[in-house]
Amino acid sequence: MKAVLVDAGPIVALLDRSDRHHEACRKALADIRAPLATVWPAVTEAAYLLSSVSPRAQTPLFEMLESGALELLPLGAADIPRMRELMEKYRDLPMDLADAALVRAAEREGLTSVLTTDQRDFSLYRPTHTRAFHLLPKR
Fold it and tell me: Which domain holds residue 127?
């Protein structure tokens, strides 16, 4: 079963009940049967955003990673040229490093579903392996 990629926004929304996307992400997560995966740049972004919620808000994020509830997909030097190419292609949005890393990981792993609160940008990204991403939560 192929994983669902998880962007930083839903990680924050799931861990912060006051986030405006909390309920939609919680409902989407309840319907997902596939494993969840992300990349370090998205974790870094989520950790930074959670640090403004409370000093302990990052703890559940680390617990998700340590337990395997959220798998980390590897990124290496071979991924950098494509990530750079993507960021240049979508510089008008602009595409950030976390999004470029997620798109690159999706292309490399053949993943097509993304749990994101940034549906506008992910609806515009065109990965090489599929016409468009399947975005969650559904709107």
Answer: 4-136
Cα separation of 1 and 108, whole Å?
A: 16
Angle ∠(57,73,76) on CA atoms, nearest 5: 115
pLDDT tens string 24-82: 999 999 999 999 999 999 999 999 999 999 889 999 999 999 999 999 999 999 999 99
Query: Which CATH number do you get for residue 120?
Result: 3.40.50.1010
**Per-residue b or e along 34-72, where b marks 16 or more CB atoms closer than 10 Å to that residue's CB:** eebbbbebbbebbbebbeeeeeebbeebeebeeeeebee
pLDDT over 90 (residue 89): yes
